Prior knowledge:
Layout: E1 3-5, H1 8-17, E2 23-28, H2 34-46, E3 49-54, H3 74-83, E4 88-90, H4 94-97, H5 110-113, H6 117-120, H7 124-139, E5 143-147, H8 151-164, E6 169-173, H9 194-219, H10 228-239, E7 249-258, E8 264-265, E9 272-280, E10 283-290, H11 291-301
Parallel strand pairs: 1-4, 2-3, 2-5, 3-4, 5-6
Antiparallel strand pairs: 7-8, 7-9, 9-10
Pantoate (PAF) binds next to strand 2 and helix 7.
Amino acid sequence: MTVVLRTLEELHNWKNAQASQKIALVPTMGNLHAGHLALVKEAQRHAEAVIVSIFVNPTQFGANEDLDRYPRTFEADLEACENAQVDAIFAPSVEVMYPEGLKITHHAEESLANRLCGASRQGHFDGVVTVVHRLFSVVEPQFAVFGQKDAQQVAVIKALIESEAFPIKLVVHPMVRDSDGLALSSRNQYLQTPEERQTALALFETMQGLAVAFHTLNQAPTAPPLNLQKAFELSWKALQPMYPLGQELQWDYVEAVDDETFEPQAFLTSNSRLLVAARLGALRLIDTLHVQELLDEAKERA
Ligand code: PAF
């Protein structure tokens, strides 16, 4: 049975009852889907006791973002956690998480905070760091499991653990995709029509195209180096007509970073991670892939 903990006292008693068992935390904002349940499974591989936090964190939403519309589906989430044999859900109120009001108490590392998603979502990562800092401090897990889908968030949390010396092992679970390749995410659930879904796939397919193009170029070392932005512009021009709502897809960024250091790269290397974000109507979509992993998978399938 999954126990539901709402106060710090309930959390404290639950932690004491775990005696010397290791605890893994899976932080979420609820509305659980198969991607979250994959994180739970990963957590269960690392620790005897798994706790899922469900808290829609107001400080990570911008003024014109969807805080009020964010789906709150506690009953379904509880059922999903019971089926997945989660030991506990920590579902605190705003007052429990922010006893001194909705203030930012911790900041994301400067070199990460305002790039990529941070550039169009000012203050977002400060909100994430503030709430995750609080979760880490009150839950005190030995492991914390995050999804690779939010690659920048992973980099921000890694920096937080290092800078605060939290004795927590960060576990990053690979992206979970639907059978058509679309990333499983709360936002992607808002895609309603087949055209919207097909167009959202353009993010993944464009990254795949770029990775393959760079790989092919690397095989021909005499070819002139191809800048990532230029390659994207050329390929999107050719690809756009293939997507039903291609004209309406507003690219926010298409970037590559070193997967280890998160340093921006103009040219891909074997350790590159591609990161993309685009708007489709009111929806903001993100996706990511590791270039070498994609090429290795393709080789295995061949
Ligand atoms: O990834 C999320 O769902 C949120 O950003 C997190 C980590 C639970 C913090 O609110």
